[in-house]
Design a protein that fits this description.
Blueprint: E1 2-8, H1 12-21, E2 27-33, E3 48-53, H2 59-72, E4 77-80, H3 89-93, E5 104-108, H4 119-136, E6 148-151, H5 152-157, H6 169-179, E7 184-188, H7 202-217
Parallel strand pairs: 1-2, 1-4, 2-3, 5-7
Antiparallel strand pairs: 4-6, 5-6
Length: 219
């Protein structure tokens, strides 16, 4: 069973467009991480499960809730798709096909069109990815994408409860997979930075970068 997890926070219009782009019958788990106006029932379809955090708990916490629900429902492959429409829906869902012979698939913006990424984020991404590649002997183009797919076995093997509830969660997941010898593959995924896209501030990005360095070179 394939499932898609969609974290969302205060982007109902974009979320509605993303949900309309999902194939009929695909199990979807929407995690509303404390939006000011709850989005439950935004699209009335039986295959959509609505989960809500009463208060904002963080991007990582939203993923944890979504993954737990998808696994409990019997998902064997899980795709992470942002509810703000930043990552192309069809391209992100196609990552599930790349799991044949792999434990996780990453949707790289650098294999698509890196110039759509704001410059300061683009170079920060490249620098942090280079550090991780040097540390683990890998050659990935991007290790900071939010477009991902995992096998259920991989998710169950990760210590998700012990990882960050914030944005650092994504990098901690990558580091744990690389340290444990999981096989990761990359595929190009197009992105769009529109008015509905959510991005962290420069200050939080700096804290995220420092956290990534600690995750990469820590114990």
């Amino acid at each position: 069973m394939l499932a898609v997890v969609l974290p969302t926070l205060d982007t109902p219009e974009a979320l509605g467009r993303v949900l309309d782009e999902l194939p009929g019958g695909l199990a979807a788990f929407v995690v509303d991480d404390g939006s000011h106006v709850p989005v439950e029932g935004l699209r009335s379809r039986p295959e959509i499960t609505w989960l809500r955090h009463p208060v904002n708990r963080g991007y990582g916490a939203a993923q944890k809730s979504g993954f737990a629900a998808a696994l409990a429902a019997g998902a064997t492959r899980v795709v992470l798709l942002h509810g703000d429409g930043q990552y192309e829906t069809a391209g992100t869902l196609a990552l599930a096909e790349a799991l044949d012979g792999a434990d996780a698939a990453l949707g790289s913006r650098f294999l698509s069109d890196p110039h759509v990424i704001p410059a300061w984020r683009r170079w920060g991404n490249r620098g942090l990815t280079a550090l991780a590649n040097a540390r683990f002997g890998t050659h990935f183009s991007e290790l900071h994408t939010g477009a991902r797919a995992y096998t259920a076995e991989t998710l169950r093997a990760l210590p998700l409860h012990a990882l960050s509830d914030d944005f650092l969660f994504d990098q901690e997941v990558i580091v744990h997979m690389l340290r444990s010898g999981r096989r990761l593959v990359e595929r190009p995924v197009a992105t769009h930075y529109g008015s509905g896209s959510r991005s962290i501030s420069f200050g939080r990005s700096v804290r995220y970068g420092l956290g990534c360095v600690h995750a990469i070179f820590g114990g």
